[in-house]
């Protein structure tokens, strides 16, 4: 058994708005994987596998979080997942994808690339060093208002049914999977998802509110399917031969941020979206709390309570290996949500899976 996530914490810098408003920094990294929250009413220290403060680079997060090892495991045939969790505006999408302003015509500086692009580059490096023939395909889904929608299918995104079978578990029926001949093509897909001029960002729901100008209104799941076939150096009959193939997956989950409607000022459709986001995150937290209990004391795990927990069932408590990156704000105004995220990640540390 291995830990579900060995959660890592990332503390973003105070924003210009928070600084002008006079918000105090109440979260501090103490080193050695510990983070301290210090206010007049709260004085708590939390321990994790790694804590990255506001000065940590994107490369430091990639190398220190264990993401490179996760890529290796996916090539070896394991089902691997990384998901970013935290309050709206806490830096989840930046951690996974890098700056939202990047596009095919205006790429991000190499130092600002997120976990996704760095993982794609790592896949390419491993395919060369291992003399492996990698066959790659990708699927890209979002969960918006409890509807699963395919972001790669042509035309307006439409809801797809979520099914269950004994052999496959929960799966999305009629989901489109696109084959790629190169990792650069997958990177271009990601840029399309970020570019305001291309289909990706227009198809995935985002809106502006008081806490975040680019708030994701849906949970997005980008899955890279990896089929690895190593060529044998000692063919039995003197000709080219291949070893048995391995099939793994690497899934990136950009969760919509939890939010308090009172703080964001959301109303109308934004309020409906916020309620659905919070409801699905509550279901995710409930599943993690139950999975954190010793196996002999566990009750039924309610994966069916939301579309999100159904799609993450294998990653959370099944045969997968999952990395959780919890993103938090250091602002005194966000204290309640920050503490909630830290307690959430602390529970996730106790979950184990059998990959």
Automatic annotation (TrEMBL):
InterPro entries: Kinesin-like_fam, Kinesin_motor_CS, Kinesin_motor_dom, Kinesin_motor_dom_sf, P-loop_NTPase. Residues 4-351 form the Kinesin motor domain. PROSITE patterns: KINESIN_MOTOR_1, KINESIN_MOTOR_2. It holds the Pfam family Kinesin. It comes from the Eukaryota. Its main location: cytoplasm. ATP binds at residues 86-93. GO terms for biological process: microtubule-based movement; mitotic spindle organization; spindle elongation. One of its GO terms (cellular component) is microtubule associated complex. It is found in: Cytoplasm, Cytoskeleton. Keywords: ATP-binding, Cytoplasm, Cytoskeleton, Microtubule, Motor protein, Nucleotide-binding. GO terms for molecular function: ATP binding; microtubule binding; microtubule motor activity. CDD domains: KISc. Belongs to the TRAFAC class myosin-kinesin ATPase superfamily. Kinesin family. This is Kinesin-like protein.
